[in-house]
Amino acid sequence: MNDLTQHHGAAADDPLFTPVDIGGVNLQNRTALAPMTRISATEGGLVTDRNARYYAGFARGGFALVITEGIYPDTEYSQGYLYQPGLATPAQAEAWRPVVEAVHDEGTAMFAQLMHAGAQSQSNRYRPGTVGPSAVAPRGEQLAHFRGSGPFPTPRALSAREIVDIRRGFADSARLALAAGFDGVEVHGANGYLLDQFLTDYLNQREDGYGGSVENRVRLAAEVVDEVLQAVGSEIAVGIRISQSKVSDYHHRWAGGAEDAEVIFSTLADIGAHFVHTTEYRALEPAFPTGPMTLAELAKKFSGLPVIVNGNLQETQSAREALTTGAADVVAIGRGALAQRDWPRRVREGLDIATDPQVGTLAPLADIKDWELSL
């Protein structure tokens, strides 16, 4: 595993700027760039110098860890957006190499987030239609800033054979991530994408071993993590991102509350995941109305793993609170990072923090703008 550190001074009494180990990757501080879809690869899913300059800017700004936007892992049904980057072919892996090197040159670690969009796909150049656990369309509508419009179509239910292929696709993509030089892999099991669709009761109406109880509904996520661990887990970090809410359904909560959380997080820990990354719209709010614990606190309690936490933590007080309560080990910053790519440096030096991105950052499309690269 790699030992990548930021060569910056740090206030000894600031929890944001103490070292931490995530899956054998040593980080000099507790700040990570949250994964954010920017649809700025080529049509064929190749990242370019544009992506390298974009990600290196956050590393230069003091983030100890950069997590990529969701990357599709196969050339079947996993792609979610036009111009989304892929990590499904050797050519796509080779394109990522200079991006990773640009981040490493700034002393920052980089994890690849592998994402199968499933029924939440808005566009796929490889296959027509969408797939999911069952023939149930996601709630809400497609996102215009990712080139979508109208309601999500009803997906085709995946066969048992296709599920095996999907697991293999994640593992093969993880091997390509290792070859490209990434320090870790984050399996995307959150925000309404395929693995979260299996976890979601109203989207998963299967009657086989992947449907019904929460133990069955978390099975695919656990199997994917297991296969990725077998593929690369002795060489790079392997973790998973988990949420309750979705791109198209902010209000969803696990029906079983903390009992569901116990099953989900303990299962992922038992399978051997190196870390868990929780994301909620407001990370510091209780996960359920029946108790005070946040999703990150439940993840820590039931998994015992290092926890990365994301969700409206751009205010420095909130970011520090997530760490000092013991709920999390690393804070992942999204909106605050888009507002100022040097968020960690500004916090460390006591400078003013902007909490919202400039107008036009994610509009009319969420692609990388020229002016972002000049910051």
Main beta-sheet annotation: 8 strands, parallel, barrel
Number of helices: 12
CATH topology term: TIM Barrel
Q: Tell me the total number of β-strands.
A: 12
Gross morphology:
globular
Mean pLDDT: 95
* CATH domain class name: Alpha Beta
How many domains would you count in the coordinates?
1
Which structural category do the helix and sheet elements fall into?
A: alpha/beta
Assigned CATH superfamily: Aldolase class I
Fraction of residues in H or I helices: 25-40%
CATH architecture: Alpha-Beta Barrel
Q: Going across the major beta sheet, what is the strand order?
A: 3-4-5-8-9-10-11-12
CA distance, first residue to last residue: 32 Å
Please indicate the percent range of residues in DSSP E strands (runs of 2 or more). 15-25%
Structure at a glance:
This protein is an alpha/beta fold and 375 residues long. Helix content is 32%, strand content 15%. It has one domain (15-373): Alpha-Beta Barrel (TIM Barrel).
Account of the protein in words:
The structure is a single chain. The protein is α/β, with parallel strands linked by helices and 375 residues long. The protein has a single domain (15-373), classed as TIM Barrel (Alpha-Beta Barrel). Helix content is 32%, strand content 15%. It has twelve helices and twelve strands. The chain has an eight-stranded parallel barrel, surrounded by seven helices. A two-stranded antiparallel ribbon has the order 1-2. Strands 6-7 form a two-stranded parallel sheet. Helix 8 links the parallel strand 10 (275-279) and strand 11. The longest helix has 21 residues, at 160-180. The chain is globular and about 55 Å long. Residues 1-10 have low confidence and may be disordered.
